[in-house]
Automatic annotation (TrEMBL):
Its main location: membrane. The keyword Coiled coil applies. It is found in: Membrane. This is Methyl-accepting chemotaxis protein McpC. GO terms for biological process: chemotaxis; signal transduction. One of its GO terms (cellular component) is membrane. The lineage of its organism: Bacteria, Pseudomonadati, Pseudomonadota, Alphaproteobacteria, Rhodobacterales. The keyword Mitochondrion does not apply. It comes from Rhodobacter capsulatus (strain ATCC BAA-309 / NBRC 16581 / SB1003). It comes from the Bacteria.
Length: 734
C-alpha cells in the first residue's frame, strides 16, 4: 500500500479510534455519574422518609408528654376517673385531630388496661396486654416510649408517656398518627416522590405481604419475590417509569419500637436531570462522531502535500492532544492537503476534549450544587432540632418554676397549719385540764388564761357554764337544807300531834269510864268537859300548825323541783360543751394527720382529750340521771306532803267539832243526864275519830321522816361537787 493511501487511511483510522475512545470514556463516565446520581437520589429519598417517620413518632411522644404533665389529667388518671377526662378532652378532640393530624388519644392504667379512648368514647376498659407491647413496657419500666407499632387499625406512629401522681406511677397516655395513604400523599406532595407501603403480618400469624397504600395508582413496584430480599438486607434499588418519566427508587424495611419488621416502604424519585444529561450526551456524541468522520474524510481526500514533512509535527501534536492537553497549537489547519485534514481532525479532537472537560466540569458543578443543597438541608434540620431543644428547655424551665411556686405555697400552708395546731394544742390543753377538774366534781375549774383568737369566746362560754352550774348547785344545796329543816319540823309536829292524839284517846277512855258516873256527878262531867275543851283547843292549834308546815314543805319541794330543772339545763349545756370539745379534738386529730410525722404527738393528745371529753359527758349524763331520780322522789314527797296536809285539814276539822261539842257539854251540863245515851254514842264516834287521827298522825310522821331522808340524800348528792364558798357559808348557817 502506498504512503499516500496510508496517509489517506491514517486520518480516518485516527478519527475512528478517537471517536471510539471518546465515546467509551464518555459512556463510562456518564454511567458512573448516573449511578452516583441515582444512588444519591435514592439515599436522599430514603433518608427523607426515615426522617419523616422519626419526626412523626417524636411529635407523638412530645404531645403525649405535654398531656401527661397536666395536673388535672394526672389526678383524674390516679382516681381512674374517665368521666373527668372525657369532660376535659372530648369537646376539643376533633379540633386537635384536625390541627395536628393526630388520630388517637388513649389513656391506660397498669399493666395495660384501657382507661378511656378519647377518640372512641364508646370503647374503654379492655385488656391491651397481649396486643399493645409498647403500652405494657411503658407501664412496667415507667419510661416514655416511641416508634411504630401495629394496632387494630393498622401500623401507626405512637408516643407513650408515663403519668405520675404524688410520686407514684398511675398510668400512661398515648398519642398516635396513622401511617396510611394520607401520610404517603402528604410526603408525595412535599417531595414530589412516589411512595408505596406494604404491611408485614405479625410473626406466627398466617398471611401474605400486601400493599396497603400507594401514591402511584399503578401496579406494585415490588414483586412477591422481592419481599424476602428487602427484609433480609438494607433494601433493594428500583428503576420504574411512571407516565413516561423515569424514576429511581429504593425499597426499605421499617421496624417497630422493639426492632421487629412491620412493613416495607418504597420511595421513587423522578429522574429528570439524569435523563436530560444522558440525552444531551448522546446528542453530542452523535454530532462529534459525524463531524469527526466528515472532517477526517475531507482531510484524507484533500491530498497530502508536504504531508511527509509534517507527519512528525502532527504526531507530536497528536500525542499532546492524546495526553489531554488542549492548549497545543495545531499547525497546518489552513492546508488543503491531508496534513491539513489531519490538523483539522486534531482540532476537532481537541474540541471534543474541551467539550468533554466542560461536561466534566458541569457534572462536578452539579455534584457540588447537590452537596451544597444537602448541607443546607442538614443545617436546616440541625436548626430545627436546636429550636425543638430550646423549646423543650423553656418548657422544663416553666415546669421548674411552677414546681418551685408550689413548693413555696406548700411551705406557707404548712407554717399556717403548724400555727393552727399550736393554737389548738393550747386550747385543747386548757379545756382538757378544766374538764378533768369538772369530771372530778371541782366547780372552781374556770379557765383564767385567755385563749388565742376566736377560741377565747369558747373559754368565756365554758366559764359562764361552770359558774351557772355552781350557782344552780348552790341553790339546790340551800333548797335541800331547807327541805331537811322543814321535814324535821314536820316530823316533830307530827310526833307532838301523835302524843296529843294519844292523850285524847286516853281522855276519851276516861270519859267513857266516867259516863256511868255522869248522872250522879254533873260537876265532874263539867270539869271533864272543860279539860276536854282545852285539849281540843290544843289539838286544833297543833293541827293548824301542821297544816302550815305542810304548806311550807310543799313550797320547798316546788323550789327543789325548779332547781332540778335548772341543773338539767346546765348539764345539757355542759354536755354540748363536751360534744364541741370532742369535735374540736377530732378536727385537731385530722389536722395532725395532715401534718404527718410532725403532728403525730399532737394526734395522741387530741385522742386523750376526746376520751376525757367523753368521760365528762358520761359524768354529766350520770348527774342528769341522779337529778331526774331526785326530782321524781321530790315529786313523790310533794304528793305525800299534800296527802298529809289533807289529813291535817280533816284533823283540824274534827278537832273544831270536838271543841264545839265540848262547849256544848260545858254549857249544858244539866242536860248530860238526859243525853247520856247520845253522849255515849258521841264518845264512841269520837274514839273512832281519834283512832283515825292517830293513824294519820303516824303517816304524817313517816312522811316527814321520808322527806327528811330525801333531803339528806339530795344534800349528799350535791356535796359530791366542790361548790363555791357561798354554798359552804349557807350550809354552815343552816
Amino acid at each position: 500500500m502506498t504512503l499516500r493511501r496510508q496517509i489517506l487511511l491514517l486520518p480516518l483510522l485516527t478519527a475512528v479510534i478517537a471517536i471510539v475512545l471518546n465515546l467509551s470514556g464518555m459512556v463510562l463516565v456518564g454511567q458512573r455519574t448516573l449511578d452516583a446520581a441515582y444512588s444519591k437520589e435514592r439515599a436522599v429519598a430514603a433518608d427523607a422518609l426515615r426522617l419523616a417517620i422519626d419526626a412523626r413518632t417524636t411529635e407523638a411522644l412530645s404531645m403525649a408528654q405535654i398531656i401527661a404533665g397536666m395536673p388535672a389529667l394526672r389526678e383524674a388518671v390516679a382516681r381512674r376517673d374517665d368521666k373527668t377526662i372525657e369532660t376535659m378532652l372530648a369537646g376539643s378532640i376533633q379540633e386537635m385531630m384536625a390541627q395536628t393530624g393526630m388520630t388517637q388519644l388513649h389513656f391506660h392504667v397498669p399493666p395495660g388496661t384501657s382507661l378511656i379512648r378519647v377518640h372512641q368514647l364508646d370503647k374503654r376498659g379492655d385488656d391491651l396486654t397481649k396486643t399493645r407491647p409498647m403500652v405494657v413496657r411503658a407501664n412496667a419500666a415507667q419510661v416514655p416510649e416511641r416508634g411504630l407499632e401495629r394496632g387494630r387499625t393498622g401500623v401507626g406512629a405512637r408516643g407513650v408517656a408515663p403519668i405520675s401522681w404524688q410520686g407514684a406511677h398511675v398510668g400512661t397516655v398515648e398519642v398516635g398518627f396513622d401511617m396510611d395513604a394520607n401520610f404517603l400523599s402528604a410526603m408525595a406532595a412535599d417531595t414530589g416522590n412516589e411512595f408505596e407501603f406494604y404491611a408485614v403480618p405479625p410473626a406466627g400469624e398466617a398471611g401474605k405481604i400486601e400493599r396497603k397504600a400507594d401514591t402511584t395508582g399503578e401496579a406494585p413496584m415490588l414483586a412477591p419475590g422481592d419481599f424476602d430480599q428487602v427484609l433480609q438486607s438494607d433494601g433493594i434499588d428500583l428503576l420504574r417509569n411512571f407516565d413516561g418519566v423515569p424514576h429511581v427508587g429504593r425499597a426499605v424495611a421499617v421496624k417497630d419500637f422493639s426492632g421487629v419488621p412491620i412493613g416495607i416502604y418504597v420511595v421513587a424519585s423522578p429522574d429528570h436531570l439524569a435523563a436530560d444529561m444522558l440525552a444531551a450526551q448522546t446528542r453530542l456524541s452523535a454530532i462529534a462522531v459525524v463531524l469527526s468522520l466528515v472532517l477526517a474524510s475531507g482531510v484524507a481526500w484533500a491530498g497530502g502535500r508536504h504531508i511527509a514533512g509534517c507527519v512528525q509535527r502532527q504526531a507530536v501534536t497528536t500525542r499532546a492532544i492524546a495526553e489531554g492537553r488542549t492548549d497545543v497549537e495545531i499547525i497546518g489547519t489552513e492546508r488543503k492537503d491531508e496534513l491539513g485534514d489531519m490538523a483539522r481532525a486534531l482540532v476537532v479532537f481537541r474540541t471534543n476534549l474541551e467539550e468533554n472537560a466542560r461536561m466534566q466540569a458541569a457534572l462536578q458543578a452539579e455534584e457540588q450544587a447537590k452537596r451544597r443543597a444537602e448541607e443546607s438541608a442538614r443545617a436546616e434540620a440541625e436548626r430545627a432540632e436546636a429550636e425543638r431543644r430550646r423549646a423543650e428547655v423553656e418548657a422544663l424551665e416553666h415546669e421548674r418554676q411552677r414546681v418551685e411556686a408550689e413548693r413555696v405555697e406548700a411551705a406557707r400552708r404548712a407554717e399556717e397549719t403548724r400555727a393552727r395546731l399550736s393554737e389548738q394544742q393550747l386550747v385543747v390543753a386548757a379545756l382538757s385540764k378544766a374538764l378533768e377538774s369538772l369530771a372530778a366534781g371541782d366547780l372552781h375549774c374556770v379557765i383564767e388564761t385567755p385563749l388565742p383568737g376566736e377560741y377565747d369566746q369558747l373559754r368565756a362560754h365554758f366559764n359562764s357554764a361552770i359558774r351557772q352550774l355552781g350557782d344552780a348547785l348552790v341553790q339546790i344545796d340551800l333548797s335541800a337544807t331547807r327541805v331537811d329543816a322543814e321535814a324535821g319540823k314536820l316530823s316533830q309536829a307530827s310526833t307532838q300531834l301523835a302524843h296529843s292524839t294519844e292523850r285524847n284517846a286516853a281522855a276519851l277512855e276516861e270519859t267513857a269510864a266516867a259516863l256511868n258516873q255522869l248522872t250522879s256527878s254533873v260537876s265532874s262531867a263539867a270539869d271533864g268537859a272543860s279539860q276536854a275543851r282545852e285539849i281540843a283547843a290544843q289539838a286544833r292549834q297543833n293541827a293548824e300548825s301542821g297544816v302550815g308546815v305542810v304548806a311550807e314543805a310543799v313550797a320547798a319541794m316546788a323550789e327543789i323541783e325548779a332547781s332540778s330543772q335548772s341543773i338539767s339545763r346546765i348539764t345539757h349545756v355542759i354536755e354540748e360543751i363536751a360534744f364541741q370539745t370532742n369535735l374540736l379534738a377530732l378536727n385537731a386529730g385530722v389536722e395532725a394527720a395532715r401534718a404527718g410525722e410532725a403532728g403525730r404527738g399532737f394526734a395522741v393528745v387530741a385522742s386523750e382529750v376526746r376520751a376525757l371529753a367523753q368521760r365528762a359527758s358520761d359524768a354529766v349524763r350520770e348527774i342528769s340521771q341522779l337529778i331526774e331520780t331526785s326530782t321524781l322522789q321530790v315529786q313523790g314527797g310533794v304528793k305525800m306532803v299534800g296527802r298529809t296536809g289533807a289529813a291535817l285539814d280533816q284533823i283540824a276539822s274534827s278537832v273544831r267539832d270536838i271543841f264545839e261539842r265540848m262547849g256544848e257539854i260545858a254549857a249544858s251540863a244539866e242536860e248530860q243526864a238526859r243525853g247520856i245515851v247520845e253522849i255515849n254514842g258521841a264518845v264512841n264516834q269520837l274514839d273512832q275519830t281519834t283512832q283515825h287521827i292517830a293513824n294519820m298522825t303516824d303517816m304524817s310522821a313517816a312522811s316527814g321522816r321520808a322527806l327528811a331522808s330525801e333531803g339528806s340524800d339530795l344534800r349528799q348528792t350535791v356535796e359530791r361537787f366542790h361548790l363555791p364558798e357561798t354554798a359552804g357559808m349557807h350550809r354552815s348557817a343552816a
